[in-house]
């Protein structure tokens, strides 16, 4: 790679410009990101790089008219997918817990005679739910600012969107505590043991449980409004995900150990 340069706009967008390998002229332009992705190559929302012509005016036009709008749409859909995937993980665990509470039995028919077992399950659920809810707290606020329900076929969604905004506001204290704690512990050599991290997450998860349930209830409204609010037009880079939103009966889990029925 004979030449490479990072282009910054001062507001968080960073692009990588390189000379096109194997060609005497032209450039490749792509987006840099510090977002954690399991496999960005398989993510349909990952923005593609483009080939730029050698002429500066044509190159600038291609960036302004083609690449940057596609980049903004890609990040919009990426944020949406992060939120929906987080809610899907929470939903599965929530349905399982609710099925156990409603039936009062494990899948093997053994009754739950001790209410402390349910309390322990709720703490375990809150621990795991908090980790997934972080994706909602991180990515949903910006997406909600772009939603304009009055300009869509579903103006009645405004009420549900307000509930979602209120749920985020009610979760802000817990989110601030979590980020402050992580910052403090990462700044020093010693960190909390795993079980203490779990206790912290469980406490935070229980504190925001009503907000989480609001997001589970109105996630379908959120998805369709965010898809209608794609920057630069509705050029969808990922298909709707009804599989994440359709309620489905959860199988009762088998106890982890027969004597304790966990």
- What is the distance, rounded to the nearest whole angstrom, between the alpha carbons of the first and last residues? 57 Å
For the residues shown, what is the average pLDDT? 79
Into which percentage range does the β-strand content fall? Answer: 5-15%
Shape assignment:
elongated
Order of the strands making up the biggest sheet: 1-2-3-4
* Main sheet characteristics: 4 strands, antiparallel
Order of helices and strands: EEEEHHHHHHH
Contiguous low-pLDDT stretches (5 residues minimum) are 234-262
- Number of β-strand runs: 4
Radius of gyration: 23 Å
Give the class from helix and strand content and strand pairing. alpha+beta
Helical content band? 55-70%
> Count of helical segments?
7
What does this structure look like?
Mean pLDDT is 79; it is low at 234-262. This protein has seven helices and four strands; from the N terminus they run ββββααααααα. The chain is of the alpha+beta class. The chain has a four-stranded antiparallel sheet with strand order 1-2-3-4, with helices on one face.
């Amino acid at each position: 790679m004979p030449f490479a340069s990072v282009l910054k706009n001062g507001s968080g967008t960073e692009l990588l410009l390189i000379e096109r390998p194997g060609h005497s002229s032209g450039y490749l332009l792509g987006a840099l990101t510090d977002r954690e992705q399991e496999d960005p190559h398989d993510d349909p929302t990952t923005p593609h790089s483009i080939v730029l012509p050698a002429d500066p005016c044509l190159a600038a036009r291609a960036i302004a008219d083609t690449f940057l709008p596609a980049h903004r749409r890609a990040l919009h859909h990426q944020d949406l997918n992060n939120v929906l995937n987080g809610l899907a993980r929470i939903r599965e665990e929530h349905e399982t817990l609710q099925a156990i509470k409603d039936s009062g039995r494990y899948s093997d028919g053994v009754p739950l005679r001790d209410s402390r077992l349910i309390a322990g399950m709720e703490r375990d659920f809150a621990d795991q739910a908090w980790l997934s809810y972080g994706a909602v707290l991180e990515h949903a606020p910006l997406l909600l600012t772009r939603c304009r329900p009055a300009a869509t076929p579903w103006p009645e969604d405004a009420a549900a969107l307000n509930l979602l905004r209120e749920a985020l506001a009610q979760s802000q204290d817990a989110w601030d505590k979590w980020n402050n704690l992580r910052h403090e512990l990462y700044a020093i050599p010693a960190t909390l043991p795993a079980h203490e991290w779990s206790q912290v997450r469980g406490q935070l998860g229980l504190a925001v449980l009503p907000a989480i349930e609001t997001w589970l209830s109105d996630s379908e409204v959120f998805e369709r409004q965010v898809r209608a609010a794609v920057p630069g037009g509705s050029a969808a880079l990922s298909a709707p995900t009804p599989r994440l939103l359709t309620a489905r009966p959860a199988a009762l889990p088998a106890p982890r150990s027969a004597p304790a029925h966990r």
